[in-house]
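Researcher: Next entry: GST N-terminal domain-containing protein (Cryptococcus amylolentus CBS 6273).
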Amino acid sequence: MPQTTATGPAKALVDAHQEPQDLVLWSHWACPFNQRVWIALEERKIPYQYHESNPYDKEPRFLELNPLGLVPTLEGLFDSDVLVEYVEDLYPASVEHPPVFPLDPYEKSWARLNLQHITKKIIPAYFKIIQAQDPSAQSVARGEFYTHLRTYTARIKEGGPYFAGEQWMTVDGSLAPFVGRFFLLEERRGFEGKEVGEKWVEYAKNILARESVKKTTSEAKYYTELMEKYFTDEANSQVSIAIRAGKALP
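Model: Predicted structure:
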């Protein structure tokens, strides 16, 4: 039976967010798209209640809020990119609620462009390399993946430690959940961070060390178990079906 609840540091965070709140995060512990929004909520220090949604037995209330049955969901809204912006707009930027988008209009637009690169290039390539079965197809997918990561890395501000420099932004938080799963690619698909470059290796280390990332992460062994069907291309999630069909992610 697949693991249906968070473990490790993420379990402690779930337990700390069971009190009723106006804002309810309908979530699944293993979903990297969910973790993007979870990180944003933690970074912005916004009160929320965490509600685990079992993907194998979806509650009627959850399906009322989101008939597609996708996590994450907040107040009937879904799509992690949309939700991160919603979280940003809930409270004005302040010391109590630090922003996860730049305040400067140009820099904010630049952040959005790089979010698109993550969502439309890096993440599909991540799933493509996982689901590829033939060694030659894996090699091609791995090459594409390296290319997209190098493009992103070239845009990281010199000196870091984060994408835009010293301040953590949603660009970092949107990529971190996937970087936290790159160990699976190292074990099963021959991925090596050093092939992207030393700048990437340092950046990846920095974002994974962020407190909001660490405390929204479960134990590695459960990610390994959950992803097994993806590595054998037998998963039937909407993401895996889209990758198999060569379509955009849902």
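Model: Note for the record: The first strand starts at residue 24 and ends at 27.
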